[in-house]
Amino acid sequence: MHNNNDIDILISEVGPRDGLQSVKATMPTELKRQWISALAGAGLREIEIGSFVSPKLLPQMADAAQLVAHGRSLPGLFVTALVPNLRGAQAAFEAGVHKITMPISVSEPHSLSNIRKTHAQVFEEVRSVVALRNTQFPHIQIEAGLSTVFGCTIQGEVPEDDVIRMAVTMAEMGVDEVGLADTVGYANPTQVRRLFTRLRDSVGTVAGSAHFHNTRGQGLANVVAAIEVGVTTIDASQGGIGGCPYAPGASGNIVTEDLVYLLESMGLRTGVDIERLVAAREWLQRGLPGEPLYGFIPDAGVGKNFHYAKKDA
Amino acid sequence: MHNNNDIDILISEVGPRDGLQSVKATMPTELKRQWISALAGAGLREIEIGSFVSPKLLPQMADAAQLVAHGRSLPGLFVTALVPNLRGAQAAFEAGVHKITMPISVSEPHSLSNIRKTHAQVFEEVRSVVALRNTQFPHIQIEAGLSTVFGCTIQGEVPEDDVIRMAVTMAEMGVDEVGLADTVGYANPTQVRRLFTRLRDSVGTVAGSAHFHNTRGQGLANVVAAIEVGVTTIDASQGGIGGCPYAPGASGNIVTEDLVYLLESMGLRTGVDIERLVAAREWLQRGLPGEPLYGFIPDAGVGKNFHYAKKDA
Questions:
Q1: Which residues of B are catalytic?
Q2: Mind spelling out the 3-state secondary structure of B68-137?
Q3: Which of A224, A247, A300 is closest, CB to CB, to B299?
Q4: Cα–Cα distance for residue pair B144/B161, rounded to 1 Å
Q5: Interface ipTM
Q6: Contacts of residue A58, Cβ cutoff 8 Å, sequence gap at least 6
Q7: B285 — alpha (psi -120 to 50), left (phi > 0) or beta?
Q8: C-alpha distances in angstroms, A80 versus A39, A99, A177?
């Protein structure tokens, strides 16, 4: 587990996975290493370092194992990776991740369209992964990242009961954490408060992170709501890369730089240094020349009255 | 007073004032009229229609009186205007506004730099305006729009006690409403909750609207916080025009289109039709060709599971 007694909110940086797998270009491994080092150096404690999928499907992610090794060499960094199936889990476990996240669509039409699997087939996969972990890699954590939780572009409305039922199923299967993701940027703060409250009521300490997209500009508003109801891990990506950017100018993921500013301004310690975080963009820009990066703080800077959160402030 | 029993949150559209006075070009009066009609037609109940200042200073606002007359011709529209001094107040009252807003810097260095007036001089002006209203225009409302409330680019930190003291002074002088404005985009949700709570505790029903800028991307996050502590009027501008945009791509004001989506998704009725609101951008684009407009909803559209808020939802 993390040793994060000196922070209030854990930011899980998903740029190296969610960001880099969404762009066509492949960032060279050496620049990814430098970028990950810079992100960790800025104070980020958890980084989703890549995706263990077929390199034919996502050549951008072919170096996931190398990056896990690099991440493990950085002191204090918690290294996670995305894993869609047993084969990926085996590879990730062997590479030495601290945690894997398995994406699970609550919407079955989305699951079928996205990974061509029914819920029954997905459950089978999760069972095998948990069994493998339990027998051979007992110290590695498994997170179920429930997607299409706040609505789905195919199914439309996703009943909240379906979300909670899926969360309970995952907890019963033995995952350590269930996170909720707004895959398509539909979430609103009222819904966020309600669903994360129900999640905690249903699965207790297995209730996990919030993953919001900024497709409709509502990302940070949803973060405020999630924090109010006790969520302590928030996903974000540097420069907002990845997610599902719908339109030019619309970032996909919420922007780590703006999130750190929000949280620290609110008196919530993240452990992240904004200046060093903004400086880390340089590696991303070198690695993905011409790729648009988002965020207000890199341009506007912090306010003149800004100060970092203090303990018990 | 407004008759707004059928909405939960009043959006005060400030684009025709805050937006148009911030751009160099002057939008032709006829197009302003069409734009204001389209905004009102989309369901906006309150529009800040212009600024009663010297046309030498702000030629963009020279047609304020004509636009007030136009606004008054639109059924159900509450017509407001910005007024910096007694002379402007006289003109606005005679033009037939429902309400004026007088901007009052809590930071005295900001007041001196912005309008070359000490607090004592500002108070003198407010007293004269209230006296004029009381004797000759008793039905017109006066709002004090406190600025630099959440921090100041000149003074830095602005003590919250100074904000509350200023609010109480304004209430004692007889203004009907005291709003709080984040002039430079420094506000955070924790501070927003604290200050609006203290404002209501100090001046009761005189506590007024929230005016946030999106300079650091925190605008809608601050709206969520303001609503939680009972604020029911939120300022915004179509396309985010105006405010203090710091950097390219950074809107100044919060974007009305995205705000309506946020509120309606949360189950809070605004009375605004998103499709008609987005269509109103056409007039703004015609009136200010080439001026960048912001907002996610005009590009991304509403979610497939979106529905407007219902009473007691």
A1: 244
A2: HHHHHCCCCCEEEEECCCHHHHHHHHHHCCCEEEEEEECCHHHHHHHHCCCHHHHHHHHHHHHHHHHHHC
A3: A247
A4: 17
A5: 0.93
A6: A21, A51
A7: alpha
A8: 14, 5, 13
Asked whether residue B61 is domain-assigned, the answer is yes
Tokens 């207790």 -> residue:
A204
What lies within 8 Å, CB to CB, of A270 at 6+ separation is A7, A8, A9, A10, A11, A43, A260, A263, A264, A309
Q: Mean pLDDT, to the nearest integer, of B43-58?
A: 95
Q: For an interface test with A, which of B220, B268, B302 has the most A Cβ atoms less than 10 Å from its Cβ? A: B220
Which of A132-136, B100-104, B180-184 has the least mean pLDDT?
B180-184
Tokens 């160099």 correspond to what residue?
A: B24
The verdict on B305 touching A (C-beta cutoff 8 Å) is yes
Say yes or no for a CB contact (<8 Å) between A186 and B303. Answer: yes
Min distance B21 CA to chain A CA atoms (Å)? 22
What token pair was written down for B181? 């404005």
| A87 occurs within a structural domain | yes
Q: Which residues of A25-43 are buried (b: 16+ CB within 10 A; e: fewer)?
A: ebbeeeebbbbbbbbbebb
B267, closest residue in chain A (CA to CA)? A190
Q: Which of A229, A296, A308, A312 to mutate to test the interface with B (most CBs of B within 10 A)?
A: A296
**Interchain CB distance below 8 Å, A262 and B221:** yes
Q: In angstroms, how far is CA B101 from the centroid of its own chain?
A: 9
Q: Are A86 and A125 in contact (CB under 8 A)?
A: yes
Q: What is the mean pLDDT of residues A13-21?
A: 95
Task: Give the burial class of A134: count Cβ atoms within 10 A of its Cβ; 0-12 exposed, 13-18 middle, 19 or more buried.
Answer: exposed
* CATH number (domain holding residue B89): 3.20.20.70
- Decide if A218 and B261 are in contact by the 8 Å CB cutoff: yes
Determine the Cα–Cα distance for residues B172 and B175; give it in Å rounded to an integer.
8
In a domain, A103, yes or no: yes
- DSSP letter at A13 equals E
> For tokens 């709002």, what's the residue?
B143
Q: What is the pLDDT of residue B313?
A: 54
Mind giving me the DSSP string for A169-229? HHHHHT-SEEEEE-TTS---HHHHHHHHHHHHHHHGGGEEEEE-B-TTS-HHHHHHHHHHT
User: Which tokens hold the place of A34?
Assistant: 């430098």
**Structural domain range at position B150:** 10-300
B267 touches chain A (CB under 8 A): yes
A240 CB within 8 Å of a chain B CB? no
Give the model's confidence band at B251: pLDDT under 50 very low, under 70 low, under 90 confident, else very high.
Answer: low
Mark yes or no for CB contact A265/B188 under 8 Å: yes
B307 within domain boundaries: no
Q: Rounded to an integer, what distance in angstroms lies between the CA atom of residue B116 and that of residue B224?
A: 35
Q: How many domains does chain A have?
A: 1
Cβ atoms of residues B244 and B215 within 8 Å: yes
pLDDT at B268 over 60: yes
Q: How far is CA A50 from CA A20, A57, A82, A169, B253, in A?
A: 8, 14, 6, 26, 37
